[in-house]
Amino acid sequence: MSMTVTELTKKIGMPQVNISQHLAILRSSGLVSTKREGNNIYYSISNIKLIRIFDIISEMLEESFQKNHETVCKAIEETNRI
Predict the structure, then answer these.
(1) Looking at the DSSP assignment, which residues form a beta bridge with residue 60?
(2) What is the helix, strand, coil percentage profile of the chain, to 5?
(3) What is the DSSP string of 9-40?
(4) pTM for this one?
(5) 26-77 pLDDT, tens digit each
(6) C or N terminus of the chain, fewer CB within 10 Å?
């Protein structure tokens, strides 16, 4: 799926200048590819494996957050008992 900066701005809700700067970095790193159609430049992920990597990292962060959340809740409960 390819999107223009304008489409990404509407979807993400970040200022266009920020998205453009991020895309420039991603493009120079080879993580994003571009395709020009008329006045529009369409950006897409250069390798589908990046999506799998993102999914794995997201899952790991969610698990870590859940463990930390449980630890904090237990600590609060113990503090309230005192």
Answers:
(1) none
(2) 65, 15, 20
(3) HHHH---HHHHHHHHHHHHHTTSEEEEEETTE
(4) 0.67
(5) 999 999 999 999 999 999 999 999 999 999 999 999 999 998 898 998 889 8
(6) C
- In angstroms, how far is CA 74 from the centroid of its own chain? 30
Q: What are phi and psi of 44, to 5 degrees?
A: -145, 160
Length of the chain: 82
pLDDT classification of 80: cutoffs 50, 70, 90: confident
The confidence band for 81, taking pLDDT boundaries of 50, 70 and 90, is: confident
Nearest to 71 by CA among 60, 58, 79: 79
Amino acid in position 1: M
Are the C-beta atoms of 50 and 31 separated by less than 8 Å? yes
> Packing angle between helix 5-12 and helix 16-28, nearest 10 degrees?
120
